[in-house]
Amino acid sequence: MNVALAQTVRVAVSPYARRLARERSLPLEALRGSGPGGRILAADVVNFVPVAAPVSPEVVAAAAALPPAASRIAAFATSVALGALHDLLAALERSGHVLAIDDVLLRAVGRVFAEMPDTAKLGDASVALELPGRQTVFAMIPEMSLTSLRTMRLAALADSRDETETPAVLSLRLLPARDIRPVMMPLLPGRAMRLTVSLDMAADHAECLLTADAASMGEAAAAAWLATLKSAIEQPLRLFV
Amino acid sequence: MSAARARDEFKGAPNLPDPEILLDLFERMVLLRRFESIAQIACRKGETPGFLHLYIGEEATGVGVCAHLRPTDWVTSTHRGHGHALAKGADPGRVMAELFGKVDGICGGRGGTMHLYDRSVGLFGTNGIVAAGIGHAVGIGMSARQQGRDDIGVAFFGDGAANHGGFHEALNFAAVQRAPAVFICENNLYATATPLKSITLNPEIATKAASYGMPGVAVDGNDVFAVWLAMKEATERARAGKGPTLIEAKTYRIVGHHEGDPVIGTYRTQEELDAWIKRDPIDMFRKKLVEDYGIADAEALTAIEARIEKVVEDALTFARNSPEPDPATVRLHVFADPINPPAALARRAVGETRTQGWLEAVRDGLAEEMRANPAILYFGEGTGERGGSFAHTKSLWQEFGADRMVDTPISEQGFTAAAVGASATGARTVSDLMFADFAFETAGQIFLQAAKLRYMTSGLMSAPMVVRVGAGALRSSGPHHSGIYHPVFAHMPGLIVCVPSTPADAKGLMKTALRAGDPVIMLEPKALFASKGEVPVGEHFVPFGVARIAREGADITIVAAGQMVQRALEAAEALAGEGVEAEVIDPRTIMPLDIDSIVASVRKTHRLLIVDEAWAMCGLGGEIAQAINELAFDELDAPPGRLHTAPTSHPFAPVLERAMLVDTARIAQGARDVIAGQPPVPDHWYTVGLKSAAPAKSAPVPAKKLPAAPPAQAPAAGGDEPVTMPFGDLTVSEGTVVKWLKAVGDPVKEGELIAEIETDKAVVEIEAPLSGTLVAIDQPVGAVVPMGGRIGGIKK
User: Fold this and answer.
1) Is B637 part of the contact surface with chain A (CB cutoff 8 Å)?
2) B70 and B168: one domain?
């Protein structure tokens, strides 16, 4: 028997539960079905608690009973040239508009989702920015200006809100260390995608790693997604209009 | 010339009417004959879709009868009805266009040859169903009388129909009602190909009138003046309120049953045909006009014929040039648009209510509407002075009288046909069939006549009648008095189907039905007749297609109608005790079906159970569950479930009946099963055990001999006129060349026989389409040629 086939056990999910899981970017593998024959029902999705989150002891006990999430992931890496972006940011700074690379990255991620409607189907294309010990979630509205995005980001940095539980399709991690090429990064609970970015010392290149839940996103789609991101950052003018 | 003087000049015929009348009779007959001849050629060429039943030979009857009728009188007709349409005054071009299925046809191409309706001239349809139109004429007459007019209904039908229940029921009902109607039996001796004498021991159809206490007159149906005289008396009688007359017109069709059918076939002889051709109605009348009455010479009559020739040529050109209907319009004219009458949609302040029983509430609704509209007639068995089998018409007879609360014979077909005819001509009718099961006694009138009328006429006519029945199981009513059958009715496009569950809804839907534009099947659950409920006082209408949320809940949607609503509510209470809140949706009308409300509920509850008193097979459960699959799949947290009455007839023994019906406990358990993700498993397919049986061996498919490809329409070398294999019977696709009576080079005259072909059904003679020389024989004797294929050519 075909080994790959044998490994693909069909997960029974009610249509409504499937929709709820999709909206919450919950991998179906992480869920335990309580319906007939192990069918995953809406209640299983709604009551799902991610293991990593700080939770009460009872829930931890319940979660411990879950089978280990079979993390079937796909990962793609690319190196993105930042020269054009730096020139643009410098020019803007001279005219009094200060923007950081973080803002541009958030903007680029949102744009890629807008350009690839298939991937946006994974849920509402919200993006979680990973901060030390917490996450902050941005609804990706294509029309929003970079300046507004920056204002929102700075406001989120200023407060201590943790939106780890808020649905988002992707989490964005900026590694503090430089000259490191990320090779494998785990998905965070409830996030179907994770983008890890590390800058080199001269800050003229960024090493990007996209980790994606294979159950939620096809490999080809994930690779295309990353290629679109690379193109968006390397030709950054479009991100400013 | 004054009429009096003209009469004086008649030779030996002192009682003749004005010469104009006689000449008009002649002209009309020529019109009918020439129209049919042109249609016959068009049919053979394949220009008309479907097939035609030609009126050739019977013109005197249609013309003699219709000469007495006004545009506001109506005739109902038969499958052989082009002549009736023209005699009643329909425009020849538009009738021809209808035969061609064109947009300018009198029914916009939706009706065609056997469904020709024209409100403007009082043509109530040629009809594809034998005897179906006879009862319509009865209702048409009663409708006119109720509206204070002396217009009449006239039914044409054949000798075949005289052995049909529709004939007997309609004549009896008409006689006892003194209906302003005339019945014209065109006795052409054969019901299709079955001789009259072989199917009845009393072939004198006129004498059957005696059974119903009405005058019966037999006339020579080929003598237009004889028909005219008989109809004169019958018309006067009908208009004067003296009641109906049966006229048997003895006539003959000198063509086959339909175009493509053999003229003689196995059932007639050439001698018989020749004898009748000698009595051709047009030739006989021409001779009388010239020789006996002396009111016209041959030249004058030839001038009339020339004029008519132009009329039918123009009709043919008009039909050919008329566009095809737009396929985008195919869904129009099934129901009135909007489907609800304005009164049903008007917003009303929620006012006072009072507690009423079901029957009383509906009686109030009927009485209110009958007071508001004097043209409402109520037909039913024992619904008059007696007040109905369920006391459901109690006191209405006393208020509205016997003319409106009409006690009918047990003739469901007859009085429902009358209800169709009356409702389509300005009255409104209730046809009370007592039990839903009895609707099948008049299924044809409901499904084939009432439901289709609006569509067949491209929206120009409709039958806004109410079929009222007590429906559903109640205390061992048994196999013939327990059915509800709403899915059967809802299956038919054009029928509105109501299954109310409360006295208020029953009254409100009845009032809406009596103002609607379409036939309404009102299925009142007998089990609820004894129920009581709050009913709004005064004007209260319930619109079609708007469901009622009988109980709100968040955990499961239960759809139930009629007496199942109360059972579902009881089950919901039981479930509430277990912490499950069921939402109960009562659709109130099965057609139109408020699927949006069901979808909205499923979006809330994510689970669905359909409970229905009718059977599961092709039923409401499957219908709604599939609709949810299509419209709200992502909302389902469990497979939808369905609970129907067991797939058996209704048994008499109470213990068996209980075992068959859905009850509260089964609904509660069904809901639990759906919530557990395992809906009740139905078993109405009757396939258990079939799989183990050896599969029946299918007979080997015989190798089909394909007809030769249509010979490429041989380029009309030098522009000859093609001689083609004629189109004829619908079921025949090819013919064999049997004989060429002419050789290449022979001169031929238009209409001259040039070849014979044989199909599975008939030997058909091929006539020269024009005068000239036969220049080509493309298909030799023995060749099999598809219809429409070229077999030879003639050059002028």
Assistant:
1) yes
2) yes
Total structural domains in chain B? 4
Which amino acid is residue B732, in one-letter code?
Answer: V
- From B731, B640, B717, select the one nearest B680 (Cα to Cα): B640
In this complex, do B636 and A14 lie within 8 Å of one another by their Cβ atoms?
Answer: yes
Q: SS3 for B143?
A: helix
- Same domain, yes or no: B265 and B303: yes
- Kindly report the pTM of this predicted structure: 0.77
Question: Could you report the per-residue pLDDT of B68-112, keeping only the tens digit for each?
Answer: 999 999 999 999 999 999 999 999 999 999 999 999 999 999 999
Tokens of B473: 């199981």
Question: Mind listing the pLDDT tens digit for each residue in B110-143?
Answer: 999 999 999 999 999 999 999 999 999 999 999 9
Are B619 and B590 in the same domain?
yes
User: A28 by DSSP, 3-state: which?
Assistant: helix
Q: Enter the DSSP assignment of B696.
A: P
Provide the residue range defining the domain that includes B473.
356-536
Residue A41 near residue B637 (C-beta atoms within 8 A): yes
Q: B70 with B166, same domain?
A: yes
Contact A15 B677 (CB under 8 A): no
B486: annotated active-site residue: no
Q: Which of B248, B381, B412, B583 is catalytic?
A: B412
Q: What is the ipTM of this complex?
A: 0.72
Which of B269, B297, B320 marks a domain boundary? B320
Answer yes or no: do B516 and B569 share one domain.
no
User: What burial class does residue B203 get, using C-beta atoms within 10 Å of its C-beta: 0-12 exposed, 13-18 middle, 19+ buried?
Assistant: middle
**CATH code of residue B646:** 3.40.50.920
Per domain, the residue ranges of chain A are: 9-64, 73-240
Whether B635 contacts chain A with CB within 8 A? yes
Q: Which residues of A touch B633 (CB under 8 A)?
A: 15
Radius of gyration in angstroms for the set of CA atoms belonging to chain B, rounded to a whole number: 31
Cβ atoms B95, B82 nearer than 8 A: yes
Residues of chain A in contact with residue B678, where contact means CB-CB under 8 angstroms, are: 36
Query: Of B512, B536, B560, which residue constitutes the final position of a domain?
Result: B536
Partners of residue B520 on adjacent β-strands: B466, B496
| In a domain? residue B3 | no
* Alpha carbon separation from B685 to B616, B621, B648, B651, B690 (Å, rounded): 9, 14, 12, 20, 11
Query: Which two structure tokens, joined as six digits, stand for B419?
Result: 């209800």
DSSP-assigned states of every residue in B680-692: PPP-TT--TTTTT
Region B502-513: mean pLDDT is: 97
| Domain A9-64: homologous superfamily in CATH | E3-binding domain (4.10.320.10)
Q: Do domains A9-64 and A73-240 have the same CATH topology?
A: no
* Residue-wise DSSP of B186-229: EE-SEETTEEGGGT-S---GGGGGGGGTS-EEEEETT-HHHHHH
DSSP for residue B292: I
> How far does CA B144 lie from the centroid of its chain?
21
Beta-carbon count within 10 A of B596 CB: 12
Instruction: State the CATH class of domain A73-240.
Output: alpha beta
Specify whether the CB–CB gap between B31 and B92 falls below 8 A. yes
